[in-house]
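Hi L.,

You mentioned the student needs an example of a multi-chain input paired with its predicted structure. This one should do, with 1066 residues in total across all chains.
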Amino acid sequence: MTAQDVLDLSAAQTARTIADRGASAADVVTASLARVAANAALNAFVTVASEADVRVAADVAPQGILHGVPVAVKDNIATTTLSTSCGSRILAGWVSPYEATAVSKLRAAGAVIIGKTNMDEFAMGSSTENSAFGPTRNPLDHSRVPGGSSGGSAAAVASGACRIAYGSETGGSVRQPAAFCGIVGVKPTYGRVSRFGLVAFASSLDHIGVFGRSVDDAAVGLQVIAGHDPQDATAVDVPVGDYRAAAGRPLTGLVVGVPTEYYPASLDAKIRAKCDRAIDVLRQLGAEIRTVSLPHTDLAIPVYYILAPAEASSNLARFDGVRYGPRAAADDLSDMYERTRSEGFGPEVTRRIILGTYVLSQGHYDAYYLKAMLVRERITQDFANVFASGVHVLFTPTTPSPAFTFGARSDPLDMYLSDIFTATANLAGVPAMSQPIGLVDGMPVGGQLLAAHFREADMFCAAYALEHALGPEALA
Amino acid sequence: MSTAMETDVTAGFEMVVGLEVHVQLKTQTKAFCGCSTNFGAPPNQNTCPVCLALPGALPVLNARAVELALRVALGFGFTVNARSIFARKNYFYPDLPKGYQISQHDTPIAEHGRLDIGLLINGEPRVIGITRAHMEEDAGKSIHDRYESATAVDLNRSGVPLVEIVSEPEMRSPEEAGAYLRTLKQILLYLDISDCNMEEGSLRVDANVSARPFGQVRLGTKCEVKNMNSFSGVERALAAEFRRQCGVLVAGGSVQQQTLLWDGAKGEIRPARSKEGSSDYRYFPEPDLPPLLISDAELARVRETLPELPAARRARYAAMKLSEYDVQELTADPATGPFFEAVLALHADAKSVANWVNGEVRAVVNERDTAWDAMSLEPARLAALIDLVRDGVVSSSAAKKIFAQLLVSTDTPRAIAERDGLVQVRDDNALAGWVDEVLAEHPVEAARYAAGEKKLVGLLVGLVMKKSQGRADPKLVNQLLSSRATG
Amino acid sequence: MAVSDADVLHVAALARLAMPADRVPALVRELNGILDHMAVLETVDVTSVGDDARTAMPRRDDIVGSVPLARPLAQFAPSPRDGFLLVPRLSTHSQLGATEGDE
Ligand SMILES: [Zn+2]
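Structure written out for the whole complex:
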């Protein structure tokens, strides 16, 4: 088997093949770099590791469950060997002097990082058009966006450069690009994966997530980074389940909730049809389908676009030119701050800092921030009620539309509304994932599964079964 | 300066003072990272991804800082909030790496404390309300005078844990503010939670002061005065700021709310530099830190470790019939008491032990600037020395010589007394011999004394003591001379 | 509660962002559009919402040991000198020499 062939095996099979000496880890990661190079037009990567470096890394990689498996990592997750520029001029060329916990776990599992992937600046966007390093293209149609903000990681997996890539989510930044690129994207429970080393956008909503070519790739990818971390006070000390154990398990007894709020009358009929078919398949597999309600769903976007910018305005204050990053020349401290930050941040980041500062400022805090926090509790309670009623997972469309073309969402509010089905899970902290459920007009559509806190295994159980039942049809 | 004029300006006005005291907690590591808090390290040596606010770094709270904050809460009778919330206080400054300070805002760890400041007003003890005590992190240091046109930033202090204790605006004079601060510091030292060193910055005081005509209920506009580096500096700064505000009011103006800096060298206050745009701190709950939960069980555990506080110790000592002065001296700092009691356990006379501890021993401690427990003086040896005085083996003045030797020698007090010939001579024959000799050598005085001039006894005792080279027991000499006068 | 030009300028100053006059109108329009969308929150009854039941705060032992830096501060800071980080002085206190930098 050639190294190129090995790349097309699942991540788990790749590691096994390397362990069985069916291929050398160094050759596999070299083949991966070749695919990155062949797809350079996608602009999926901000930084690509050198062949010499990945070969060395592959040679010394521990024999874990990702032994020799090439992976891509979003450019906002700290690595000491490659840049962590967050798609921003203000961190251009920044190489972190410490590493994210998730990255350390990846390395310990034997994975080899082939590069850092492109993203909307500081993860603020849903299209990867807002990168200081140019937009990323959708591998399935170069005139369309790959989704965002983790568009680079999604494109890396969808283009076959690697089976697993890591991204981050604040309002759907893994699930939405997974849906747009026809791959699997998982956002675990808040607190399941350490955020230590994930450059903060909105701390209470940020998650590290994983892309997989298949459900199994995503399950393995999550398995290796999940767990408690004493460096993150919000990482929860709950035992990590075996996500792959759900593969092949029958769905008998599984209760799938279908929340009406995610199927509004305005929903694209073709997307609705794909969802209906997926629900039918789940029913045929033995799951009980129940119509449920999450009444505060339509408040998610207003809540999200108050809380996320508010936290961002504070999280991005550290980019001040004092300790790291570029500093604009100035004789006066105030000028130095303003020039460094204004030259460093792009328009969307500036807009959100202004919005976030406004909603926190004197006289506006109660009406916006405080109110949004309280409504957030309502949204969280909606999920708690549904899961307490015996529902195991929820099934919804991931996005209201397939991948759109470049520039199609020029009004910020239009862009914000594309997170409408995904932001709820970030607000409530529940795990959620997207997987391909078919094509609409030649572009993939994602179906979303959500589960109760720390019940990722329930979600994977349904996902494995659905993937198996839909087969290649999902992408045809 | 005209005293008369000053009196005129402030006459009819009442001073209203509230104090904010920042106390650096005595921890090994910073509040939210494992960096050392040691003082005097090279600049920026004690830093890490967290306290440098590198992208992606996260805070994790120091358990010891919570424990010390709880001690503060219990020490001042605060109500502890079972659930307190950390918040971000947002402002830009080069020594604030994250662009926000992690503090507590709406829900601090402790509220509603009170402090008896040891003054009586109209016979009533003066008790000042303490609004709250909250946990927060310190900023780094900005040094403006080291380099030409540049500010140098050192982040070693960035993230060091603090407790801020905020009083109600209930003090009415610089003296009350001074008493509040001294009492507060004494208790903090007893609680062993901070060095409370104002010069090193481990205790910092900001004062809010306003003036209003006597009888007016509404508070005047307050100004904040910072940069005092001693309690007396606080008192002087308050007086100066009060005078300034009264002057403005008397002239028909109105006081503008502002922040002022005290210049201790010049004895002046001046406006702080403006920090444009920094007044709106945009507090919101710190999303990187879940709520801090304090259970009753934890509180009970901390309460058990709480040391005896000054008031309780003072009461105990007062019950030993010690003078007010002795009690105050013995309880002024937390370490004197244990030493005093260790000696007292071996020599039961509290008064004489107090005399020694407040006298000779304290002088040595002060002179050597040493800690009581670090001093090379075992309580047992001091007790033995006091026994010698009580038993008349040595005189008080000899005892002082022996005491000096105790600090440099390992011999027992008695051995030192014998070695140095300081044991009092109480042998009647020897004493009588000296008395006879003195009377013989001073016939005039002897005659007058014999004739009833009793006041000469002091002179004669002194001469005997001199003749004996200080070894004679003066009490016995006195008795002997008395018997000669009558006999 | 419509956002005004003055609001945007005030908020930009708080956030230390330069705000050229020609950018203000567009931002005001965008913010008002976004905040109009938030207005729906005013209609939500949140009276019975209690404290959120997130997990309790973990605490760290007070033992020296922090995440090490792979490269020292002086290698990545924009203006290191003698171990310090240098920044331009605030013009409003160029004549001050004191070291009372903190709030
Ligand atoms: Zn640190």
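You could point out the following to them. Chain B touches chain C through 65 residues (CB under 8 Å). The longest strand of chain B covers residues 124-137.

Best wishes,
N.
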